[in-house]
Input
Amino acid sequence: MTKDLTKGRPLGLILGFAIPVLLGMLFQQFYNLVDTMIVGKILGPDALAAVGSTGSLNFMVLGFCNGICTGFAIPMSQAFGARDENALKKYIGNCLWLCIMFAAVMAVATGLLCKPILRLMKTPADILEDAYRYIVIIFWGIPVTYLYNMLSGMIRAVGDSKTPVLFLALASILNIFLDVVLITVIPMGVAGAATATVIAQAVSGIGCLFYIKKKFPILRPAGTQWRADKRYALKLCAMGIPMGLQYSVTAIGSVILQSAVNSLGTLYVASVTTGSKLSLIFCCPFDALGATIATYGGQNVGAGKVSRIGEGVKVCMTLGSVYSLLAFTLFFLAGDRLALLFVDGENARIIANARMFLLCNSLFYIPLAAVNVYRFVIQGVGYSQVAILAGVFEMAARTAVGLLFVPRIGFTAACVANPAAWIAADLFLIPTYIYCMKRLGLRIASQNADCEENETPEERRILPGQGRLRPRRP
Output
C-alpha cells in the first residue's frame, strides 16, 4: 500500500501521486462549494454574503489545522524514506497526542472568540448573526478537521495518495444529502450547511482511521511507541507549527482584506465570495502540486537523493504553468457562466464582478504555482522555519492593498490583492529555495564523506525532523 518516491522518473511519480491528491482536494472544496451553491440559490444573496464573510477567518483557523498536520507528516515521510520504521511509528504516536491537545484548545478558543472577531472585521450588521451561526459550528468541528488531516497526512507520507480520496468521495455525497435535508427539509438556514460539512468530514476521518487499522501495519505504533517522547514531539512541532503559522500569518492579510471588502457593502461581499469559491476550486491543482513535492522532497532527502528534488521541482513548475494558461482561458470564455452556479441570472452586477475577480487572479496563476511548489519543497526538505517568512510577505501585500487601496479604489483593488501577495512571496521563496538546496547538498556531501569509512551510503539515516543526514555510529 506504500509507494517509494525515491526511484523512477519524477514525472510519472509526481503525476501518479498528485492526481489522487488533487481529487481529494476537489472533494474537500466540494464541501464548501455545495454549501455555497445551496445557500446562494435557496437562502439568497444575503445568506451567501454571510457565509462568504467568514471565508478569511475560516482559512486562518482551519489553515493552521491543515498546515500543522501537513508539517507533522514531513518527519514521517523522511523516516519512511530512510527506512526507519521505529522512528516512523514514534512520530505517529506523538502526533496523536499533539493533535488532541491542539484540537481541544483551538475548538474552545475559537468558539468563544469568533463573534468578537467578526465584529472587528466590520461584518455588515444585516449578515452578522448568520455569519456567526455558520462559523461557530465550523469551529466546533475542529477536532474532526484534525482527525482527517492527521490521518490522511500519515497515509500520504508513506506514498499512498489514493486512499484518502475514497473517503472524501463518500463524505462529499453525504454532504450533499445533508445540505438538502438540513436547509430545505429541516430549515436550519446557514447553520445546516455548517453542520453538514462537519458531519461529512467526521465520516471521512473515521473512514481513514478504520482503513489504517486494517491495511497499514506500518502506521500502527505498538507498546512504547505510543508514549509521549519529548524529542519526537519537539521535532514534530518544529515542522508542524511553522507550517500552521504560515497559513495563519498569510490569512491575517486575508482577514484585513476581507474587512476592507466588508466595508464596501453586501453586494461586493457576495461578489468576492462567488469569485473566491470558484477560485478555490480551480486552485486545487496548485495545492496538489505542493502536497506532492513536500512528500517527494521528504522521501528523497531521507534517502540522500538531493539531485532528484530539483528534477521534481522542474516537473511541478511545468505542470503548474500549463494548467495556469488553461484556467485563464476558461475564465475568459466562461467566467460569467460559472458564476451562475452561485447566484441567479438577475444578479448581473455580482456575476460581472465575479468574472473580473477570476480574470485578475488567474492571470497570475503561474506565480501562484511557484508559491506552492517552492514553499512546500523547502518545507519538505526540512526548512519549515524559513518558509514561514513567505507567509509574512503575503500578509504584508494583502494588508497593504486592504488598508491603502481598497478604501480609495474599491472593488478593483480587491481583485489584485491575491496576485500582489503571490508575487511578494515568490520574491522571497525562489532565492531561498536556491540557498536551501545548496546548503542541503553541501551538508549531505559532508556527512557522506564522514561515513564512507564505516558504512555504505544505504546505511545513512535521517536525524528525525531535521531534514539532514548524519552517519550511523558503529
Notes: The chain has 17 helices and two strands. Residues 456-474 have pLDDT under 50 and may be disordered. The beta strands are 461-462, 469-470.
